[in-house]
Protein: UPF0291 protein L21TH_0273
Amino acid sequence: MLPKEKLDRINYLARKAKKEGLTEEEKKEQKRLREEYLKEFKKHFRRQLESIEIVD
Structure:
């Protein structure tokens, strides 16, 4: 998963977006961080699915 600092930054930007809005630079950063988060999430989820063994 992503380092805690990146997750904290994603959450900070989300709160700021709701309260006061983001600058164009912050919007780009938020988009990049979210894409990075989703990529890591999908990779981790795929590993979990691949490790499942179905026993009949």
In short: The chain has two helices and no strands.
